[in-house]
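Onboarding guide, step 5: your first structure request.
Type a short instruction followed by the sequence, for example:

Predict the 3D structure of this protein.
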Amino acid sequence: MQTDVAPQNLAAPPEARPVGVRTVLRYLIGGRDAIEAIAASRRALWIGLLFVLSAGLAREYDQHYLIREPAYLLIPLLASLIASFALFLLIRLAVGRQSAPPGFWRAYRSFLTLFWMTAPLAWLYAIPFERWLSAYDATRANLWTLGLVAAWRVALMTRVVSVFAHMHAAASFFVVMFFANVAAVAGIMFSPVPLPAVMGGVHYSEAETLLALVTFSIASLSVITIPILGLGALVAALRRTPKRGWSALAACNSAHVQPKLRALAIAAVLVWLTVLPFTQPEQRLRWRVESLFRAGDIHAALAEMSVRPRSAFPPHWQPPGRYGFERHGPDLFTAADALADTPTADWVRGLYLQRLRECARDWHFWHFGNDDIPRLANVLARLPEGPDIAREIREELEERLTHTNQEPGRYRAALEAMLALADSQVTTPP
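The system replies with structure tokens like these:
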């Protein structure tokens, strides 16, 4: 007995329609005809690849020194390959054999083309909010942009999966959202902001705190909803009722790609190459300083920063040497200690002294490792500004000292040394 779907139940391959700029625009708003035309075109894959490369340039043209950090251009491409393949496997699992899928790699090629064609949405990331807004407002604007693009992509891929695999819209939504939430949790694991430190009360800038809180909220919501969405995806798989097979959309015919679309895809890459000379000089300086910090040459890094004004570096850039960011370079105490014997520009010295003050004033700081208290005492003793900073935290020092009877002698001695420094008559030179 023949168990596969009879050939007459499969839809005939769609007529080869030229894929042009209008097709892509209709695709981005979920037009069925555009989805079918792109999925059935072998040549559209290369247009999608150019769009992915242009999206990487749009995201990174003013964030990294691309000559020395080219991996940042390849990361979006690699991530898209991994994500599209994982989502494709999930769709195949949900659809099963009832839809008589075509050859695996032929179908994946069509799906990858559709996946890559969402890349133009990432062009919104190119808006340079940092050059117009404060660090906090720029972070808010970037988060709103990220939310808009993410929501748009989820809605579009839900529509794409529904058309491509002929799944019910609700089933497509559960499959796509389940995948998106798992991907979000995986991505947050590599967050550049140390969430435990932020949630524990360590002082960071308003922009970083906002970013960390939003990231934490997304992670929490994703973890909570993953089981629900996974159950919905499972139900969708068990109740699959495809209207017709998806082989028609994965036929990979030779649909013509119009010259205007090819020109747009090439221009989308070239336009960023013309912008790079205006944004890369400051990124080169950032990369140079961060490389010196990573190599442990703190004095050379401070000197490199000091020979240039703050405006020569990227807007809102935070140089290494921060408490809680040790995995990204030297910690705050190492950087601040180097100030004692390194001539620095006022903006460089002021930046690290401000970080030291904020760290010392933050009461939550005292809940961290006891080794940090002696290090703080040593740094304050070496800096001309040390007595002033010690006086600012006198009350915290005295209160902490009353609870150190059982603490190691080195820890208690460091507190007493900072109190003595606070009582000294040395003042910061004007």
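Each response can be followed by summary notes, for example: The mean pLDDT is 77.
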